[in-house]
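Order emerges. For instance:

***
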Amino acid sequence: MASTEPQGSLSIEVCHAHQAGIWHRALTLPGGACVGDALEQSGFCLAFPDVDPARAGVGVYGVRCDIGHVLHDGDRVEVYRPLVFDPKESRRRRAQHKAAAARKS
C-alpha cells in the first residue's frame, strides 16, 4: 500500500519587515509542513517575542493565509505588521489636498 505522507523536503524563507530592517531566515522543512512549522523552526518567536503572527497576520508571497496553511517548495512566509496609517484616511486627505490646490489655480 502506498503511503499518503508527503515526500521530500521544502526550501522555505520566513521574513518580517520591522522598523530596524528586514529579518529573514532560509530553512528546509519536511514535506507537508505548514506556516506554523516554518515560524517555529525559523526562530521568529524568539527574535520577536512581542509579535503574535496569528494576530499580526501571515501570508505567502503577499497572499494572506492562516498558520495552518500547507507550504510548497520555494514559498516565502511573510509575517505582517500593523498599518501605521489608515489607507482610506490617506486617500481622503490626498483628495482634499488636490481639491484645495485646484481651487488655488
In short: The domain at 9-104 is CATH 3.10.20.30 (Ubiquitin-like (UB roll)).
